Amino acid sequence: MHRAMVRGLAVATAGAVLGVLPAAVPSQAASGAGACPMGYYCGWTGSDATGSMMKTKTNLSSFGAFNGKLKWTVNRTSSVACLYGTDGTVHTDLPDGTGGGGGGIYLKVMTSLRFFKTERECIWTAYGQWYSEKSPTKAGFGDINGDGRADVLSRDTAGRLWFAPGDNSGRLIGGGWNSMTAITRHGDLTGDGIEDLLARDTTGKLWLYPATGRGGFLTRRLIGTGWNTMSRIAAAGDLTGDGKNDVLAADKTGKLWLYPGTGHSHVMPRRLVGGGWNSMNALTGPGDLTGDKKNDLLARDTTGRLWLYPGTGRSSFGARKLIGSGWNAMESFVSVGDTDGDGINDLNTVTNELYHGGEVGRQLLYSGTGRGTFRAAKMVNADWSELNGTF
């Protein structure tokens, strides 16, 4: 499958990354896509995989003698092939298995190629670039590496988890995270003062990943099984007033449960918060939004309304308050504390296709007021599409 990705930055980025790479290797004349070996990317000078064939399984800085002559291509590799053109366009060619490939007039201007695990890497970083100001206060959550900036984790479509420390850089934590059906974080769960990570796998096991304090995680520990009965899981900070961070989970019948933390890598027997929570399709723990030093909860209902549930510090919530409507245009809620540097907890979101008629992947900042409300949204970054979750 071929896709066009037109970005002004694309050519400059591609050129900077490509450097000096081998030119395309000509092959014998062929008349059919079946002539392309598995593990290779092939192109032909004639339509429908006819004429002279080139093949490669490595990045190319130039198609060499095939520049401007290709009319048909097929991708037999397991990677996304990114084709860069002299006109500033980028085309992505997805793995085609035993398919017949495709062609188009765009191939006339394609002159170089790189292989990546995901489509977004053709023009962007694999992770969402993230910037946050240093906060004058310590919220006790959101800062995985302890540098005073709120951090985020991005999962790409290949299942890799990336750590973004708040300075627009990022580094790989590891692969295989597409096996997780829920990922959440809010503060320390082990007693060492470093924020940890919770993740549920496809079998329903809930795992604790203790953080190193340097943007990575130690060997995981099993919290328990049977968590696939939960439709939503949210680490939400201390909700009981004992100074230990807790976990909320809504089951498929609509009951919301509080799992009090022990500070020693496990949770105590659950307590029922209330029913009717199957009307909510997103939960996030933003910390204290009202200024009373108690952790609150944000929940989005199925109509798109966002509600604030003020924490009481006694395992319950006060009367909810409406934040606003239209929040079904958000793909992800990112609650990592203060990100604009004023010492007040904020909310960041990533948009989906419902936002402004299809503007997917916008990272929006909703600055907190400390009074249970948010200021108007500011778009921070427009390049957070084609990810598989931001946490």
Automatic annotation (TrEMBL):
Pfam families: FG-GAP_3, Inhibitor_I36. Residues 1-29 form the signal peptide. This is ATP/GTP-binding protein. Gene3D superfamilies: Tachylectin 2. It comes from the Bacteria. Keywords: Signal. SUPFAM superfamilies: Integrin alpha N-terminal domain.
